[in-house]
Design goal:
By secondary structure, the chain is an all-beta fold. The protein contains 1 helix and 50 strands. The strands form 12 sheets. Strands 12, 13, 14, 15, 16, 17, 18, 19 and 30 form a 9-stranded antiparallel sheet that branches.
């Protein structure tokens, strides 16, 4: 029920005591939660009327251990504007004490006719004040009065503070309590951001972000005498240190983010945890206020965006653990988590230097992980950047029970001093005792700060690359991520053949890749990291040809070969199928990041007269074998008539495959070889040509001679050869 008080005329003389709302500054970190209620809520509170249709009322209040925050609604029911600057409020208690109410918003104070406006205030109070004892005294400035106030009425705080109210969204601390040389209005409003529990070097720490807003009219720093600690539900106290932000001068009406770091016990209960501000008065510690951390403690599920901490005004960068996969292997549990950083704001935002660690169990165990990919230093609006964090967890660790901590690498140098127990040492004491310190202790080392903690519940077991490979047609562009190749380069697989190595106990698959530069400048020729995976999940790593060019010019294509050592066994059609996995193993600290997996198969051996040796095509028109004798030695001559065409104009180098002719007698013995090439001096050409194998002895000349024609390529593991044609 709105209580109507004596109506007061609106005319008044100006006074130097009038409050100019235009110069009072905002102090709310959670202003949205203090918005004026709908008019239908007015009847829940008493009011102070200044006319029949215009009144003041309370619409919200919150009481902490050291301050009262409240909102006054000024309803103008007149047909003219009213000026709130002609009025004022203060807080009084039942014992007759009064406390200054400071406006924590910047507003003109003008309320148009038929409108209403809400004004937010705060008042610093001594410990022990209760809502039932407090009232807001509404007055009109009047210099004819002894106290310059014409008191209009009082609004009881208890009328808008309900049982089970939410905790105060911030703790407002008068800095004159700590430093009497500061201005009367020197105050900071501390609001909690996120808090995360992480492990470092086998110990548990709590990182807490605190937004400090300057409510005064002058720049201030956090005073050296202001101390902070965590207090758990059992009364145990943990000294906090400032990891970053302590030395920053905070401008009026501006905020700065402080990061507190607290060494905690591994069994510290997180329910009922509070952050307490205090200072030392000789041998006693004096509490300045507490903030409940119930809503501050934060972990993030897979697939959920987390606002990136410590951003500047206007920035809106979010981090999300998009997916997490694992595979159980002999050396442990291999896990990979993909983190996406997104700019959801409207301004360009800097990309932070990020690292990660996997923490598991209660013993403070963790494994670090880094993504060293080269990326732009900024994110445009709506742009994203992807990070891959790989690690091997100990055997037996459940990856679904692990957490990924996302760290920002940063220098956190600051100043401070301590006496007694070292601040930040994590010393815990019983209720009523504290760790002696002088000034807010700060870190002086260059390190990192946690951005988010992702819970990996829902991580999935990694599937065999053979089963997840996508269909692929030889010669088409491989859809690879830009972290592996430049966007201006096209990569395609042109050939995949099996080559023989009978004497070495294995066979070799040779893949030829065509790389095309579609850009306008010379680019580095990429060193593709790749493997082929068989239907049983076995992976065979590709080895690049012994030598290759380092650059590729605009508008040109280059062919580079990779070899894969395969088991030397009989195979069926199914064994000829593989998955080609192209990956990046340099950007991550451990393991690799797949850039694409594609279904491929070994090409069948040539059966006709046309032979493909990319980028050449050879057609055998006619052939014959004969022998000659001269000077005591015999020679075999293979006469060939063939057409050779250069099918694709690509760059090939001296390491390109060679042609080898091998003569084998009726007993399967190699009695001679002759090398040829498709490029350079003495290359094979279209038309008739003779391949001579000389120096044979009489006993080496026999019937049943066969000449095998091979493609031969030098690999890091030796020479591999593919049978192209057999001549008898």
């Amino acid at each position: 029920m709105i209580r109507q008080l004596t109506s007061i005329g609106l005319r008044s003389k100006n006074s130097f005591k009038q409050t100019s709302l235009a110069v009072l500054l905002t102090g709310s970190l959670l202003a949205a939660s203090w918005a004026a209620p709908a008019p239908s809520a007015h009847a829940a509170s008493e009011g102070v009327f200044i006319s029949k249709d215009s009144y003041f009322m309370l619409n919200r209040a919150s009481l902490s251990s050291s301050s009262l925050q409240f909102s006054v609604l000024f309803h103008n029911g007149e047909n003219q504007t009213l000026d709130f600057n002609k009025y004022g409020v203060r807080v009084t208690d039942s014992a007759g004490h009064s406390y200054t109410a400071n406006l924590s918003e910047k507003k003109s104070g003008i309320v148009n006719g038929g409108q209403e406006e809400s004004f937010r205030f705060y008042a610093n109070l001594p410990a022990g004040e209760t809502a039932a004892d407090l009232k807001v005294d509404v007055f009109r400035w009047d210099y004819n009065k002894s106290d310059f106030m014409n008191h209009l009425g009082e609004l009881p705080i208890v009328s808008v503070i309900q049982e089970g109210q939410l905790e105060a969204p911030e703790e407002i601390i008068s800095l004159r309590t700590l430093d009497s040389t500061l201005a009367n209005d020197a105050s900071l409003a501390f609001g909690l951001g996120q808090s995360v529990r992480v492990t470092e070097n086998g110990k548990w720490y709590m990182y807490t972000q605190v937004a400090a807003k300057n409510l005064g009219s002058s720049s201030v720093k956090v005073p050296a005498g202001l101390l902070a600690r965590l207090v758990d539900a059992n009364g145990m106290k943990y000294t906090a240190t400032v990891q970053s932000g302590a030395d920053t001068a905070i401008l009026p009406n501006q905020s700065d983010t402080l990061t507190l770091k607290t060494l905690i016990s591994k069994g510290m209960p997180t329910s009922g945890l509070t952050l307490e501000y205090y200072y030392l008065n000789q041998s006693e510690d004096v509490s300045l206020g507490t903030l409940s951390m119930n809503s501050s403690l934060n972990t993030v599920a897979l697939g959920v965006k987390q606002s990136y901490a410590g951003q500047q005004d206007g920035e809106n960068v979010t981090a999300k653990a998009s997916s997490s996969t694992y595979s159980i292997q002999a050396d442990g549990v291999h896990v990979q988590t993909v983190v996406t950083l997104s700019n959801d704001g409207d301004v360009v935002a800097p990309v932070p230097a990020l690292a990660a660690s996997y923490q598991f169990g209660d013993s403070g165990s963790s494994v670090s992980s880094t993504d060293n990919s080269t990326r732009s230093g900024f994110l445009a609006p709506k742009e994203t950047s992807t990070y891959y964090f790989n690690a091997t967890l100990p055997t037996g660790v459940d990856p679904n029970a692990a957490q990924l901590v996302l760290w920002q690498k940063a220098a956190a140098a600051s100043t401070g001093s301590t006496t007694g127990s070292t601040a930040g040492s994590g010393t815990t004491t019983g209720t009523g005792s504290s760790t002696a310190t002088t000034g807010i202790s700060t870190s002086t080392t260059t390190g990192q700060q946690p951005v988010a903690v992702f819970v990996l519940k829902g991580a999935s077991e990694a599937q065999n690359g053979f089963t997840t490979a996508v269909d692929y047609e030889l010669g088409t562009k491989l859809a690879l991520g830009s972290s592996v190749v430049s966007p201006n380069l096209d990569v395609s697989l042109i050939e995949l053949h099996a080559h023989e190595n009978d004497d070495l106990g294995y066979k070799t698959a040779i893949a030829k890749y065509k790389i095309t530069n579609n850009g306008t400048s010379t680019l580095a020729l990429p060193e593709l990291q790749n493997e082929i995976i068989d239907n049983k999940g076995n992976a065979y790593t590709g080895s690049r040809q012994s030598e290759a060019a380092t650059q590729i010019t605009p508008g040109s294509s280059y062919v580079v070969s990779y070899s894969y050592l395969l088991p030397n066994k009989e195979t069926d059609d199914e064994d000829d199928s593989f998955a080609l996995n192209v990956y990046d193993d340099k950007s991550v600290s451990e393991g690799n990041v797949s850039a694409g997996t594609f279904k491929v198969a070994l090409q069948e051996a040539e059966t006709g007269d046309t032979i493909a040796i990319y980028p050449f095509s050879l057609k055998i028109n006619d052939s014959s074998i004969g022998w000659t004798y001269s000077g005591g030695t015999y020679s075999y001559v293979l006469s060939l008539d063939m057409d050779i065409s250069h099918e694709d104009q690509v760059i090939i180098d001296a390491n390109f495959s060679k042609i080898q002719f091998e003569m084998v007698d009726s007993l399967g013995r190699i009695v001679g070889t002759q090398d040829a090439s498709l490029m350079g001096t003495g290359k094979l050409t279209s038309g008739s040509q003779r391949v001579t194998i000389s120096g044979l002895k009489n006993e080496q000349v026999s019937s049943g001679i066969v000449v095998n024609m091979y493609e031969v390529i030098n690999t890091p593991n030796g020479t591999a050869k593919r049978l192209l044609k057999q001549f008898k």
